[in-house]
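Table 4 source record.
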Amino acid sequence: MKAKGLGVAALLVWPLLASAQTKPVPGDAEAGRALALIACTGCHTVTPTQPFKPVYVGSPHPPDFKDIANKPNLTAATLLHHLQTLPAVPQRPGMANPVLSSTELRDVVAFIFTLRDTMAPAR
């Protein structure tokens, strides 16, 4: 009898979980993709089909955007905060502040989250 009750509960909760997992990240992902292809490809692989490979050859190599998107426990809010608080002159190795507007940063973060392999909550 308990198993049947759990099955009904799962049917009621599943749509709520599914909608939470597909919640879009605030920002214009297409604009973020276009901007990232211009501003980020010097160091990162933004898309596998970008016109050229990153020119940064340091170690460690900056992560591909797809790898960033698939980091466990990464949320849109934490990624946005990280990008907003990068120093203008980074310590080695490190990323410099990309000096983008808050709208541009939200757009890039929205694009990065479109690259996730699984639809984990974006928060």
